[in-house]
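debug: dumping io for the single-chain case to check the tokenizer round-trip. Nothing else runs in this session.
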Amino acid sequence: MTSYDDSRLGRARVSDNPELIAYYDELAKVEAGALWTVANEIEPWYPQPKSVPVLWRYQELRPLVHRALPLVKADDAGRRVVMLVNPGRRELSAAVGLLYTGLQIMGPGEAMTAHRHQAAALRFVHEGHGAWTIVDGQKLRVGPRDFAVTPNGSWHEHGNESEQAPVVWQDGLDIPLVNALDAGFYEVHPELYQQPGKVVNSSVLSYGGNLLPYGMEKWTRPYSPVFGYPWEPSYQALLDLAKAHEGSPYDGVIMAYANPLTGGPVMPTMGAHLQLLRPGQATTAHRHTGSVVYTAAKGRGYSVIAGRRFDWQQGDIFCVPSWAWHEHANLDDAEDACLFSFHDFPVMHSLGLYREEAYTADGGHQPLVQDSER
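debug: decoded output
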């Protein structure tokens, strides 16, 4: 672990006096300022995220999400979503760092109008069996624990084919990042709805197997040609990998949802993982640059984040801010547990900002603080 000393040379240590304060006032009048007054804040020894670890319990959120169904029409709201907001990032409506997440509910038989935006989006289904999305004319059906992507700039619309029950899925977007870069655009489809292709799940059928199509038109877009990743084969892939490898000491058996053409992330700004914790497994702690939103996909366990313990079960959502120590544990001695997660690692890697560090003290486990949540 790295230690830092604020008394070392190279840090700003200028004391105010009347002459300096008057000087600062003069600079402010011409929209200028003195770097040394903010240098320690904007150039810290190590990342100082404003986001804090948060656990959102699905059992608490679910009734609130369902209450929105009769209260707000989806077309009036644009999307009927309960967003999850980090106390340290309220001004950005962010869940952690520059990532947004929320729970969207669609009633039986509902269909939303098509639009596109600069922000990239992804979906993870919590409940319901009638969910569908159309991305650039390709219709995709998704069910519980399926993962789907909506790349930035792609036309998309959503709906629920079921006539019996609502659908709830989790949205993940890079809206705060796009807004921070002043690059946001939003556009409604000129015909309000797309004309879907004849074959449902065509992207999964074409690119979702172990083999790649040959002799077809080359895919040149900067995101995955697969728009949906069903739960069953994804979970089976984890089980198969667990037979061959021990996995990561920090994350258990972990796999990345990948662009099958490049092996890289599903989208340029956001990636996603699925990880398995063996029965009774407890990982050791590490930290990295980049923010992560986790969803408990299967089982029950806990995660220790920045010294606080957060107990989770299927459906719960929690976040790990950048450079926060974290570790995970499966509370069940008989069944495995799985965590789905999405993150901004592609941005960190593309900009050369990714860094990772292992926690080496106390056998790799953090000491707990008093306000742990269980």
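debug: round-trip ok. The radius of gyration is 23 Å.
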